[in-house]
Each structure stands twice: as structure tokens, then as C-alpha cells.
Amino acid sequence: MPTGGETGPHGFAFSDDFSTDRFGVQWSLFRASGEVQTAAKIENRSLVLQARGSSPKDGTILNFVTGDHDYEMQVEVECDAGASAGLLAFYSDRIFAGIGLSEKALLEFRKGDTSAFDHPKQIGNHFFLRLRNRHDVVTLWYSADGKEWVRHWMQIEVSGYHHNVADGFLSLRPSLYAGGSGAVRFRDFRYWALAP
């Protein structure tokens, strides 16, 4: 598995250790409400997102535009009590795909809806998430330690996640999600383009 940080054919390396502020250069908030500084900030090599809402439809979404059709990404996550976090391929608040965890459930995001499954017993408020978008099929994993990964049983076909279905003239973007209450800290975001 690549370590992240490699550039794609576009020349950009999208991995981020959150040691510097890359808002407006790489990262942007989707439909931010209020001051950006209150929704997202860099602190102690962590990206801190203020949790809000109950799903990616109304939660805090931070994303970037990629020129890669196929890619994989992973991130380390720490949630406050009451918060949920996710890793998404996000088109808009109408349609998205990905995986997340709250303190009570494993969350699957598909077609703009959220499904909750039994919370993995080995997972606490600190965990790792991974998403691969390959040939318009999204595959999802979670891990307690970033070494032993559990693949989620559902794969999600996303070829229809575009303007003709959801309007908006947007693109399917790699994204981080924070919902519920409190804050979510993301660390060591790794991204790599996959060869066609």
C-alpha cells in the first residue's frame, strides 16, 4: 500500500499532516455556516472540525477537488463524546457515500442516506477510516489501530453521483465529516491516486 503524499498526474500531493494551514489552497468547507474559524481550525497537528447536524446532509463537511478518477485515502480520527466522524466521497448534501463511526454505531453513508450498524466492540473514540474509489465503486474500511483493518461488507457504486442526478454542477470530492455535538480531530490524512 502506498504511504500517501505521492502526486497524481495533476502534480498535486493531497496528503496532509495538518502541520500547516491549507484552507483555501486544498481544503474548503461545503456550505459553511458562520465564521470558518469556528467550524474548522488547525491545532497541534490536528484538523479540528466542530460537529453539527445529524448526517452529512447538515453536518460539517471539509473537502477538496481532485483530478484523480481513482484514489484511496485514510485518516486517523478522535471524537468527543456526542460526535460522529466520517470519510466520504461527497457530491453534495443530497448524495454522498462513505463510512463513519459514532459512539453508538458504525455508520454507512450511501445515496445521501445514513444506515447504522452495531458498533464494533474494539473501537473507542479513537479510530482510523479508509475509503477507496476505484472504477466508481467505493470500498470502505475501519480500524482500531491503523494496522488491522476491517472491510465493511457493502461496496457502493457511485457512477451516478453527478449533476444529472443531483444537480449543482459539482464533482465527487474526497471529504471529512463531523456530526453531532462537540468536535472531531482528524490527523495524518493520507491520499494517493490509483493507476488506471
Brief write-up:
The protein is mainly beta and 196 residues long. The chain has two helices and 15 strands.
Describe the structure.
Helix content is 4%, strand content 47%. With 196 residues, the protein is mainly beta. The mean pLDDT is 91.
Write down the overall geometry: globular
Instruction: Give the mean pLDDT.
Output: 91
Approximately how much helix is present in the residues? under 10%
Work out the strand percent: over 45%
- Number of contiguous helices: 2
The count of strands amounts to 15
Descriptors:
196 residues, mainly beta, 7-stranded antiparallel β-sheet, 15 strands, globular
Sequence-ordered SSE layout with sheet pairings:
Blueprint: E1 28-29, H1 36-39, E2 40-43, E3 46-50, E4 60-63, E5 71-79, E6 83-92, E7 95-101, E8 105-110, E9 113-118, E10 126-134, E11 137-143, E12 149-151, E13 156-157, H2 163-166, E14 173-180, E15 183-193
Antiparallel strand pairs: 1-4, 2-3, 3-15, 4-14, 5-10, 5-15, 6-7, 6-14, 7-8, 8-9, 10-11, 11-12, 11-13
